[in-house]
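Fill in residues.
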């Protein structure tokens, strides 16, 4: 019986291999499920479709900030998770590149081979209120990126390409008022020269001034804040901020740029704090309609503390934006932006939550899934809505 059964198993048809990653919203090839799945070729990311969406996300963020502050932001702090690659083909990554005024270059194979600058004459924000073209010129915006450990290890070329973009932008011969990346890099370099004197070469200091990609130490996948919350190993918000900077202040960079060596988790907490000082707005995007801040506790230890880390470097709290995606017909996306100050999050989150709820239910009554989450104390929501003094990683205390 045994050998016959094994022969039947060996002769059984093998399920066809198909990609198993991604959301059906952006890639219908993941359907139907139940097949022999493999993840994806990350080197083929970002896709050209993701580049189109990333440009739109960038424009939406700049429009919102311009509307509120009557100027362009000089620096944006963005959390970049691996789910951006596996669920949305790198849309947030493309948003980062377009904020910097850079664009990916694809080979015939569909893989991104390099980054190139977009000429300033082509960098325009379409808002319908400026000149006869309905657009206005915009600068290259600096971006400080906090990546997850999973993205750092599973999609390493995202960090490499972002570092290439930042270094390339800092070397362009452009005025500081049109290239904030160059402005902040030059300012940081002058500060390092006066502080470090002759202990480092100019090339080493230039490399340190170019750091834009930060994450946890190599081999770790936590930002430290979640552990501190679970263990109640903190007294006030400054303790969580210190944990966030100490754990997340490790720099990463590629060797794709001439004269610069690869950086793999170099401890750079002081430089990270310096980068946080330049941030005008922090940003987090919900990369998939399959989950949100109500049922994902990851936002608390990462997003909220990153939003609140910069006040200890700045005299005022920086505004923050949350962008959500939801089903809307075919492959179209609706983004919901929310500027808030941490101490008034519950009140100002209402428009975002209303938009999110409308994507999950069609009637005015509270859906069963949300009722169940309310009974469970909404751990994800509590982690995001409350200031750190009232946060735990689970139930509110």
């Amino acid at each position: 019986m045994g050998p016959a059964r094994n022969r039947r198993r060996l002769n059984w048809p093998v399920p066809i291999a198909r990609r198993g990653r991604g959301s059906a919203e952006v890639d219908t090839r993941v359907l139907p499920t139940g097949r022999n799945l493999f993840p994806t070729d990350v080197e083929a990311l970002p896709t050209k479709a993701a580049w189109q969406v990333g440009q739109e996300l960038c424009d939406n963020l700049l429009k919102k900030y311009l509307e509120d502050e009557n100027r362009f932001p000089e620096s944006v702090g963005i959390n970049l998770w691996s789910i951006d690659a596996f669920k949305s083909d790198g849309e947030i990554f493309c948003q980062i590149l377009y904020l910097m005024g850079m664009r990916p270059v694809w080979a015939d194979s569909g893989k991104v081979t390099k980054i190139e600058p977009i000429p300033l004459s082509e960098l325009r924000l379409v808002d319908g209120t400026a000149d006869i073209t309905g657009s206005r010129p915009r600068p290259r915006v600096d971006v400080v990126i906090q990546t997850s450990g999973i993205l750092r290890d599973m999609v390493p070329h995202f960090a490499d390409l972002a570092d290439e973009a930042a270094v390339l932008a800092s070397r362009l011969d452009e005025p500081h008022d049109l290239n904030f990346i160059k402005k902040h890099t030059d300012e940081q370099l002058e500060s390092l020269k006066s502080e470090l004197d002759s202990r480092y070469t100019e090339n080493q200091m230039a490399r340190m001034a170019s750091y834009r990609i930060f994450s946890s130490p190599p081999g770790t996948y936590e930002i430290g804040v979640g552990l501190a919350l679970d263990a109640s190993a903190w007294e006030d918000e400054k303790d969580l901020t210190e944990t966030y900077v100490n754990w997340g202040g490790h720099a990463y960079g590629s060797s794709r740029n001439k004269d610069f060596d690869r950086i793999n988790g170099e401890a750079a907490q002081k430089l990270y704090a310096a980068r946080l000082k330049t941030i005008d707005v922090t940003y987090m995007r919900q990369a998939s309609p399959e989950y949100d801040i109500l049922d994902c506790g990851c936002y608390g230890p990462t997003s909220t503390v990153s939003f609140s880390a910069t006040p200890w470097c700045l005299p005022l709290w920086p505004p923050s934006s949350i962008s959500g995606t939801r089903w809307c017909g075919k492959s179209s996306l609706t983004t919901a932006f929310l500027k808030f100050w941490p101490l008034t999050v519950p009140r100002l989150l209402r428009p975002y939550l209303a938009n999110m709820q409308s994507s999950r239910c069609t009637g005015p009554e509270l859906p069963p899934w949300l009722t169940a989450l309310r009974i469970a104390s909404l751990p994800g929501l509590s982690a995001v809505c409350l200031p750190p003094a009232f946060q735990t990683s689970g139930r509110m205390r």
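The first helix runs from residue 2 to 11.
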